[in-house]
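Page 47, continued from p. 46.
Same chain as before, 436 aa.
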Amino acid sequence: MGSPGSLRTRAVAATAVVGALTLVVGCSSSNDSATGGGKKDGKVTITMGLYGVMGIKETGLLEQYEKENPNVDIKAEIAGDEQTYYTALQTRLAAGKGLKDIQGIEIGRAKEITETQAGKFADFSDVSGTDHFLPWKESQISTQDGKVLGLGTDIGPMAVCYRKDYFEQAGLPTDREEVAKLWEGDWQKYVEVGRTFKKDFKGDDVSYMDASSGLFNAMVYGYPEQFYDAEGELIYDKNPAVKEAWNLAADAAEDGLSAKLRQFQPGWDPGLANGTFATAVCPAWMLSHISEKAGEPNKGKWDVARAPKGANWGGSFLGVIDQSPVKEEAKKLVAWLTAPEQQAHIFKEIGNIPSSREALESDDVKNAESEYFSDAPIGEIFGAAAQEIPDEQVLGRKDGTIKDTFSQGLTLIEQQDTPRDEAWKTTAERIEKAVG
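Result:
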């Protein structure tokens, strides 16, 4: 199971072609089903389509399930890039073939799935033993008529990852409690600390933060509504929360506080390895990526402090295709993978915060520390942050696309010195084109 201080390496590819990146667990089986799974000679083959590092393959859970269920073979295909993965999933849903029995669903796609693809996914509302999730997590994947199209894996409560050595060189506190007090309650304070850092840092060229888009995401996801209202209408252009986040992120970009590196885009990983920035807004699932890409030379230099305000950035679900020939077996596997014990195991291994209330309350989660991040009590920090996430989380059909478009808009300010009003206009035009 690993120790509470361990965070396994998280290999997230910069780009991937779905179908080219394939990790196979168990024996393969050929059949003519639309999903690839099936039954033959007393054996059940279940296929899975996943992305990034969801912790399901990487932590040994699939092998464990196969050992406990000798008649089951699981084949997991994993794409590194979620956007590529989702584009392929949409194509395959439309064609009705090439699907997997179990498909991962990122939170930014959940509303689109529930509104436009509900008939393609199995209903979990009748599955027993699934009442342990945070209430808002289940609501994100539920249809208006009460169907539950998947079960939750992780969530994305926020913290701030920071370099202790760089803070010391800037004359700032290094203790995580004192650091958290610097910006407690207000993201504006986080930016003000950045201005102090830039002025007082004594050393080579190091930026305060990696990207202004990370700050933007952290701020907007601290509110119940971001880009859509509860009726499904676009409100990004008049939502004060979005405007506030945009303007503060633009302030940071214009003041030169950013290393101009979009998270998970080319240049960011080398920035971690080379130590070109001192802080990054980090949801729980980001820790293992940072530890892998920053590498052993930077172990113990990073720490984790509470974020100014609570927010949820990210998280996923597992859904089952309704026409799968092994639908019931796949639903059973999903229920097992998302049970409290398995969610707690994933957290211990790679740091993904559970969406299960019971898992969040377990000692395995509450007492977890990260050796890489200076023995930070990540279970305590992210567990408390999870409690600050707004109970209502309004999702929209194109949330993921809009988030990516805002990140690109802020990059215009950072990398091309585009005036913020012009960058906003360009962003709005791109959003209107993308959402139709």
